[in-house]
């Protein structure tokens, strides 16, 4: 209903959805809708008004029905990663527990700097029916509710109290999600009454808009400082983080490294920045890294960190580098560029590398490059033996090696929490650029299947002939498996390699490594479980419509994987792995964890002394 020629009367919900449907982005010269659609579970807080609006836009913004709100958020994150943060999905949940279930996913998106829009139900702005179903009453502040919890894990937060507010709020949310420095989740609370209120919106507000992601040029003086530091380097090293891919700067980073002959190491988020066979690829760095990368890091005198937030698994809790090493940090985010007394270069990775390249007349010493390559050769030999079937009981590494040998180079590989991120990071040999998603920024159990489902939705918009393969432990599968059903329902095929070590084995390993007895991690070590038994994962997966089979060893896994590749349905392959002997034992930098300063256990006391002895190597900084 139009109030005049230049306005249109819509509900708040209708205005939000109409506006989203008219936002586009230019990607490599092609115009695409910015929002790929959404994931939704309806309840009384979002079905009557927002649901009505979404039904009217179901062709432009397809809505995927989730099984769990946390899984929906993980799927949105997986989608954004696959699209290199150039496109996003929204999630809608009802007021109360439905929305609260998105908190973990918002934390994941915030830690990983991923765009995700949350459109969530809220209590009535009038408060006339209070307290309503599922309302969390606050005795001293009636404006405070469950949705306020998202302020700690959102880059943009708003509660729409009047229909006109969306005219400012929606563009601000999109600007945040597309900003390379501030990118992260945006939360918009939608009170149930306000969703249905009407307003005469300007027609111009709904005009088609084409967005482009900003590329910030670096400051000339910061480039000069970085170039001067590199020119003086005797043992330089490049750390390639996830921001290299988000900037689409892989070619520029590779060219820069080749021209100046500087060894490159990869972070967890930066895996697949370089092919495994590249001569300057020195391996993954840090706690879950490689002997080769960590050996180079320990000797490097100048470190060029590109697109990384330098989290503790990269830095070995800041013991991986020499204390006097100079760090140069190229990052679009000022917050990340200045960490640990780095020389900051605040700017887009692609532009900054190109500008620094022009300012730099330098080649690293041959002896240093040979050292890095020799270390990488030794690490490659270790990995070849580590993944070899039959070298020990069934292991994660063996399964990873089998899949690595048989997959298509462009297949997408996903891993998340537990022991698999370390094992994939250390043992996976990159076949093509940008094909690995190891979610270890927030390390969320349950991301493996839900995140892979989101990645698969995006992948089918790009390369539908490729597969999405996810490595999942039994602990993560039990925590959140319902989007296996979602993948079957939506015909978004996944290959799930489910490796069962009968518990939370990697935390049991940490428990043992710090001198503690096995307790409450492996099912057999839980005193409240009289008779532990393994879940029949094949029966469970097939009950959700997937194809599934259990194999006894890596050779059978290989044959099953071939069948999974040929199937047109989601496929689960289950293999038991050893909880104690199956780990990659080399390549680990020190990691700071809290250990008891006082204990009755001699083993715990000795482990505490050993742990504390390593602290002397920590760099001091901010």
Question: What is the strand and helix layout of this fold?
Answer:
Blueprint: E1 7-11, H1 12-21, E2 23-27, E3 30-33, E4 35-40, H2 50-56, E5 63-65, H3 69-82, E6 88-93, H4 97-100, H5 103-111, E7 116-122, E8 156-159, H6 166-178, E9 185-191, H7 192-196, E10 198-202, E11 209-211, H8 220-231, E12 236-240, H9 242-246, H10 250-260, E13 264-266, E14 281-284, H11 291-299, E15 302-306, H12 312-315, E16 326-331, H13 334-337, E17 343-346, H14 349-359, H15 366-386, H16 396-406, E18 412-415, H17 420-427, E19 436-438, H18 447-462, E20 468-473, H19 474-479, H20 483-489, E21 495-500, H21 505-513, H22 537-543, E22 547-551, H23 554-566, E23 571-576, H24 602-613
Parallel strand pairs: 2-11, 4-5, 4-6, 6-7, 7-9, 8-9, 12-13, 12-15, 13-14, 15-16, 16-17, 18-19, 18-20, 20-21, 21-23, 22-23
Antiparallel strand pairs: 1-10, 2-3
Pfam families: TPP_enzyme_C, TPP_enzyme_M, TPP_enzyme_N
Protein name: 3D-(3,5/4)-trihydroxycyclohexane-1,2-dione acylhydrolase (Decyclizing)
Organism: Nitratireductor aquimarinus
Model description:
There is one protein chain. By secondary structure, the protein is α/β, with parallel strands linked by helices. The protein folds into three domains: 7-211, Rossmann fold (3-Layer(aba) Sandwich), CATH 3.40.50; 220-379, Rossmann fold, CATH 3.40.50.1220; 387-576, Rossmann fold (3-Layer(aba) Sandwich). Helices cover 37% and strands 18% of the residues. It is built from 24 helices and 23 strands. The chain has a six-stranded parallel β-sheet with strand order 5-4-6-7-9-8, with helices on both faces. It has a six-stranded parallel β-sheet with strand order 14-13-12-15-16-17, sandwiched between helices. The protein has a six-stranded parallel β-sheet with strand order 19-18-20-21-23-22, with helices on both faces. Strand 22, helix 23 and strand 23 form a beta-alpha-beta unit. The radius of gyration is 25 Å and the shape is globular. The N and C termini lie far apart (57 Å).
């Amino acid at each position: 209903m139009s109030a005049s020629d230049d306005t249109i009367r819509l509900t708040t919900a209708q205005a939000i959805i109409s506006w989203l449907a008219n936002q586009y982005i230019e990607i490599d010269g092609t115009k695409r809708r910015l929002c790929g659609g959404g994931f939704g579970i309806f309840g009384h807080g979002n079905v009557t008004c927002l649901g009505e609006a979404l039904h009217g836009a179901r062709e432009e913004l397809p809505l995927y029905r989730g099984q769990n709100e946390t899984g929906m958020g993980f799927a949105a994150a997986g989608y954004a990663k696959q699209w290199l943060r150039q496109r996003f999905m929204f999630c809608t949940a009802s007021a109360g527990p439905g929305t609260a279930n998105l908190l973990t996913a918002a934390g994941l998106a915030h830690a990983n700097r991923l765009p995700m829009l949350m459109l969530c139900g809220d209590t009535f702005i009038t408060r006339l029916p209070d307290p309503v179903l599922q309302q969390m009453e606050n005795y001293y502040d009636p404006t405070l509710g469950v949705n306020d919890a998202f302020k700690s894990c959102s880059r943009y937060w708003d509660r729409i109290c009047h229909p006109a507010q969306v005219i400012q709020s929606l563009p601000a949310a999109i600007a945040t999600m597309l900003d390379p420095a501030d990118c992260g989740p945006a939360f918009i609370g939608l009170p149930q009454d306000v969703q249905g209120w009407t307003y005469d919106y300007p027609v111009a507000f709904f005009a088609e808009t084409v967005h482009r992601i900003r590329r910030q040029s670096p400051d000339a003086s910061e480039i000069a400082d970085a170039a001067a530091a590199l020119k003086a380097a005797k043992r330089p090293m490049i750390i390639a983080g996830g921001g290299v891919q988000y900037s689409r700067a892989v070619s520029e980073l590779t060219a820069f490294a080749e021209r100046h002959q500087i060894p490159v190491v990869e972070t967890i988020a930066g895996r697949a920045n370089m092919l495994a066979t590249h001569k300057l690829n020195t391996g993954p760095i840090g706690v879950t890294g490689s002997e080769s990368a960590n050996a180079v890091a320990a000797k490097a005198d100048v470190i060029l960190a590109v697109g990384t937030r330098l989290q503790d698994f990269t830095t070995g809790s800041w013991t991986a580098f020499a204390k006097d090493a100079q760090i140069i940090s190229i990052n679009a985010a000022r917050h990340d560029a200045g960490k640990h007394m780095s020389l900051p270069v605040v700017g887009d990775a692609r532009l900054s590398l190109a500008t620094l390249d022009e300012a730099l007349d330098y080649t690293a010493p041959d002896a240093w490059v040979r050292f890095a390559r020799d270390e990488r050769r030794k690490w490659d030999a270790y990995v070849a033996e580590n993944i070899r079937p039959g070298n020990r009981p069934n292991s994660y590494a063996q399964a990873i090696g089998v899949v690595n040998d048989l997959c298509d180079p462009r297949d997408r590989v996903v891993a998340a929490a537990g022991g698999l991120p370390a094992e994939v990071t250390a043992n996976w040999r990159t076949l093509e650029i940008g094909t690995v998603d190891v979610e270890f920024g927030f390390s969320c159990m349950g991301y493996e299947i839900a995140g892979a489902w989101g990645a698969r939705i995006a992948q089918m918009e790009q390369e539908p002939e490729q597969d999405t393969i996810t490595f999942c432990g039994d602990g993560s599968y039990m925590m959140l498996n319902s989007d296996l059903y979602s993948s079957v329902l939506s015909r978004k095929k996944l290959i799930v390699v489910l490796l069962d070590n009968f518990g939370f084995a990697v935390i049991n390993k940490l428990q043992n490594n710090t001198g503690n007895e096995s307790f409450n991690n492996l099912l057999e070590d839980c005193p409240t479980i009289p008779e532990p038994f393994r879940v029949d994962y094949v029966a469970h997966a097939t009950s959700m419509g997937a194809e599934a089979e259990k194999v006894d060893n890596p050779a059978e896994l290989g044959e099953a994987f071939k069948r999974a590749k040929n199937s047109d349905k989601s496929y689960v392959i289950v293999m038991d792995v050893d909880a104690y002997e199956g780990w990659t034992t080399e390549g680990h930098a020190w990691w700071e964890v809290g250990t008891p300063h006082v204990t009755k256990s001699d083993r715990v006391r000795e482990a505490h002394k050993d742990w504390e002895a390593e602290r002397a190597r920590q760099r001091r900084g901010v």
